[in-house]
Amino acid sequence: MTKKKSSCLHPIDWRYGSEEMRDIFSREKRLELLLKVEAAIAYGHAMVGNIPKKAAEEIEKKASLKYVKIKRVDEIESEISHDIASVVRAFAEQCGEYGRFIHLGATSNDIIDTAEAVRTKEALGLVEEKIIKVIKNLISIIKEHKNTVCVGRTHGSQAVPYSFGHKIAIWLDEMVRHLENIRNLSKNRVMGKLSGAVGTRAAYGVHADRIVQMAMDKLGIKPAIISHQLVSREVIAEVLIELILLACSLDKFATEVRNLQRTEIGEVSEPFHSKKQVGSSTMSHKRDPEKSERISSLARLMRGYTTPVLENIITWHERDLANSANERYIYPEIFLTIDQMLVDFDFVTGGLVVKMEQMKKNLEISKGLVMAEAIMTELAKNGMNRQEAHELLRQNSMESIEKDKHLFEILKVNKKIAEYLPKNELKEIFDSPENYLGTAKEQIEVVLLVAEKAIK
Questions:
Q1: What does the pLDDT read at residue 7?
Q2: Considering the domain 19-101, what is its CATH architecture?
């Protein structure tokens, strides 16, 4: 039975991921990189005298889609059922007498793993660029709202006064760590290898180590110090798991946006192009956090990739194929998915609507209960036993809730409190939640300093 071809079988083909990232993981790009690795190997051989320099020059010249066509590679593969051997034969056809020097000493995964390393480095560079865009957005939000007071929530309930700038600074601090991780992984964990059949490099000859180093230098990546036929998948797992962790962070931030955009809270909202954008096919009024919801949806997919990424670390002896098929799926899917998540979060943070008046209203709906800790702390500072102050505020807070009465009205007639805290000072605490933010501003400034240094 002939398989029916489809131009857009997978949503990644048309819906998710930027054009730049899709280009990196296209068939054309993969073939181009395979050819470049073969050319780099030939260059190394020529430099140590194993093959004529003219051969290496011709091989490098023909290492292009201008000469080696996907259609021809597919024709050969349909006959011999081996992808890399098909590339080698199609390439050799274009190099005439020098074609015999292509793939000298190499095994298939020398080409595959090294090409994948080059592609990974390029893809991580794109991820880094998009993280920096998000970081710049967050810095902008923080600078505008470092003095904006909102309510902090624990267990979904109002807790104490909070700084909106501090909330976003926590996101910023986390994104800076991801930026540092991506840079470190790109520099130290993305590596190619030319090891031969089992890792001894025997087929490369006596100058094998020099050939490896020269080829990797030409490709702009580090060589693995040692490997069998595969680059250790533990190294690759480090890279992919970092992208999954980044997805989890974006999900955390997006979930906060989704919660704060609830009608009943209404403190922030995603950008919405009200002149044309449609929020619902039936409910004309809807302005939903759809980008944040998509981030959360894609994060669930990303967490699912953890299993094959970790399973691929285990291999039989010096090589088996148990990792190979799933890697063809997960490499592009992980990168294209995180790419889309970063694009969406850039959109969300680039135009986040912050509703300061609603934040102020929400500070007041608990009828003063959010200031209970501040009053307890002030009582302890003025000499009351801390545990006694806690119990006193607990009892009065419960009364405030049960009677649906402002906490100040309950406390202002309490004689015990009056012994330690005059009524006017008590009222000032309730009226000034912005005075109960501790060192939030100082912490924000530290995070801003670190972030701005990281993106210079």
A1: 66
A2: Orthogonal Bundle (1.10)
